[in-house]
Amino acid sequence: MAEKPIALKLAEKQREVSVAEFFERNRHLLGFDNKRKALLTVVKEAVDNSLDACEEARILPEISIEIIEMGPDRFRIIVEDNGPGIVRKNIPNVFARLLYGSKFHSMKQSRGQQGIGISAAVLYAQLTTGRPARIKSRIDPNHPAHYFELHLNTQRNEPEILKDEEVQWKKEHGTRIELDIEATYQKGDQSVDAYVKGTAIVNPHATLIYTTPKAEQLIFARAIEKLPKEPQEIKPHPYGVELGIMLKMIKATESRTMQSFLTNEFSRVGPQTAKEICEKAGFACNEKPGNLQLPHVEKLMQAIKDTKIIAPPTDCIVPIGEQLLEKGLKKEVAAEFYATVTRSPEVYRGIPFVIEVGLAYGGQQPGDEPARLMRFANRVPLLYQQSACAATKSVIQTNWKPYGLSQSSGSLPVGPLTVAVHLASVWPPFTSEAKEAIAHYPEIVKEMKLALQECGRQLGSYVNKKRRVGLERERVTIFEKYIPEVADSIASLAGITKSRIQAALAEMLAKNKEFIASNTAKIEADESDEPENKIKMTVKEEE
Length: 543
Fold this sequence. Notes:
The protein is an alpha+beta fold. The chain folds into 4 domains: 202 residues, Histidine kinase-like ATPase, C-terminal domain (Heat Shock Protein 90); 69 residues, Orthogonal Bundle (Helicase, Ruva Protein, domain 3), CATH 1.10.8; 136 residues, Ribosomal Protein S5, domain 2; 82 residues. The chain is 40% helix and 18% strand. It is built from 16 helices and 14 strands. The strands form 2 sheets. An 8-stranded mixed beta sheet has the order 5-4-3-6-2-1-7-8. A hairpin with a 2-residue loop joins strand 10 and strand 11. The chain is globular, with a radius of gyration of 30 Å. The C terminus is likely disordered.
């Protein structure tokens, strides 16, 4: 009997791989590289979900974060919010099924995107401690609170419900999740502490109550009582659609003609623009989308490139804003000077985005160390992969010497400075699923550098003014020290009494001190919250 072909033997081993099984084996892709990072990732995913839920429901967020040390390398993480809650039937899928969510197909700004984060945290807890996720949620006072204990079946990427019951809960609406994980806790720039502080800076409308593993409670109170404007969902822009996506859209559309397909499925395409695209592509406006083959779609893509189409609408993104970013910085970073800039919306690959930059200079910050860089995307702090991020590249490529800071080639500037860079976009181009760094798109890097330069000019005006006042004060101090000797010399030469000369010199010195005090007061006024910030006004007039 002939031996079975090797291909048949290999075919017997081939089977479908569940997405949950894939991430179970490759959890580092989701931010679970090590125990310290795992603690941050779990907290981040839960808090991001809570903030998104509260904002969608137009509720001012109040989020409690508690980390309890259960033993060596074992922690319990509890995140509770005052959001709208989750309906009972959706709770298992939201928390224990990967790639399940409402934001992947939505073209508007949000923190979550792929429907992976919180279910990946549940998977990590299950892998490292074997304990189920414990979720409590309530949608309003007239409905009961529901309590679930869940595992994630990785072979089928489905939730396993271990417990499902109604419970008493004083909260009128909201969600609470408890996870036991294997992790380590350390303070520093890549810790949960830094994440919570950064989140408070770029979400000044949120109150965060954070209890550390050392049982220290930190309250980050909201700075404003107003929610950010709600982003509006938009349709994709033709410039950002690739050939394969276009084929998929044509196959799925219910439009009967190509003209109606282009106007109904895309933003910024009106009847006249659609007619122009069809003419350049070489087919009639009333052509049925189903009749198009690959060569026709290739011509359509080229016609779109050759047609001038208005940039996509920008109401799908909601930047923090200059005033609120400054308030957030002042709330959490002690400094003597603040400057913020929000750029006008721009586009990469048909996707709108806005860059914002804030600077905090002086105060108790170290003056002989590199500037502290804080990176954000859609109001979420990015704490890892700093060197791979477009924000870092932009700061390094900006020349900080004209703004009063020293800088070595290829390095961050040195001085008592905190730099905050924020990207707001429908779809931030992260370098990995862990969402830790922004990809180096030329359009994004260019906007970041322009924003940094705008803030830098304001900083340069302040630093130079402060330096001039300091030099004047030093000259006055030296002059005051030698008044007796100068008076003595002039008296012997001019034949005037020494006391009279000393009185004249003292009067001149008093006027100089008054001038210095006046300039110092002006600088201090520029540091205040008052609208007549003279340094900023001068810079804007120059621009």
